[in-house]
Amino acid sequence: MEYNDELWGRHRRAVHARCESMRQATRDQVGLSLAQKVPCSAPSQLLGLNQVVEIDRDRFIASVEPNVTMEALVQLTKIEGLIPTVIAPSRATTVADAFATATFGSSSFQFGTFDCAVLSLEAVLPDGQYVMAKLGDGDDADRLFEILGAPDSPALITLLEIALTPAWGYVEMTYWPVSSVSGARLRMEPKGPNSLILDRAAVDESTDFVDSVMFD
């Protein structure tokens, strides 16, 4: 899914409209207090910001609007042979909600929570100012990341750049039966090179994801 002028043009027009709307609200001294009570993902529903704008196969990055669901994101990235490094468990979760709530996925042991998969953000502040922040691009950008990611943020996230990883057609799975949480933790600890195969760790450099289920 390469660069598409139409998709990017539609996105920029939507962002511009929201900037103007929030500036007008500020000028009228109306809307700022309301915006502070609305989660960052809610106002974007009014704009229909629900498109995957671009998938860059060379950089392994997807440019995604905030109301795109996890199901839609995975479906489109898989066409390109890629998937997000972290996938929220619920297919209906939007990328904005997954970012704001630091959602876990089965690959979180390796890549962290979903917010760790977000490489950059663009947003509109309550006064209508357009801002963009890249993860790790200085203290100011990191603080802006924290502000935009807060569930009660008054800002409107309009685009997220999400890290991708290759999607394989098949996976090799190994089941390790355990009888306790401490046993599961022990199974995941690194072992020495001379360990018996029965004592081998369930996680090593070749492991891509880990799921665990414990029944009473």
From TrEMBL:
GO cellular component, one term: cytoplasm
GO biological processes: steroid metabolic process
Oxidoreductase in keyword set: yes
Any one GO molecular-function label of the UniProt entry: Delta24(24-1) sterol reductase activity
Assigned keywords, A-Z: Oxidoreductase
Coiled-coil intervals: none
Top-level taxon of origin: Eukaryota
Designated name of the protein: GlcD, FAD-FMN-containing dehydrogenase
Species name: Pyrenophora tritici-repentis
